[in-house]
Amino acid sequence: MTLAILTIAISSTLALINASPAQSVTSGCNTLTPGTVLLVGQSGAIRFDCNTKAALSASGTATPSFNIAATGYTSLAIVLHSSKSCNQTRIIKSGAALSFGSSRSDYDYCAVFLDPSLVKLGSFKVTWTVGKA
Known about the structure:
Layout: E1 10-15, E2 24-27, E3 33-40, E4 43-49, E5 56-65, E6 73-80, E7 90-92, E8 98-113, E9 124-130
Parallel strand pairs: 1-9
Antiparallel strand pairs: 2-5, 3-4, 4-8, 5-8, 5-9, 6-7, 6-8
């Protein structure tokens, strides 16, 4: 089965609010590059990075804001850039603060979908606000 992805444009825009040197999120690029589609039964995941570089680097606490309704995706997650797949992700929820820890780490996004018959997945934008929510 081949999943043709015709439209994917995800951006990571940063709003630095209440930022301190120990808390930061840096986007690796404006438009992410989709990787290989991983199908598992009736669902799958697509990993997004910045053309083999990390999609974002983060430390401290930050809150993502996004809307994936009507895109074909069911959830959005982050995974360490050094990880080989989307198997060990941290699900992110729009409006919910996420602690990255005190050491800066590099991450990619993983977008999960449930319908492998989809031939077009929608686009969405992720905005990170640094600091406590």
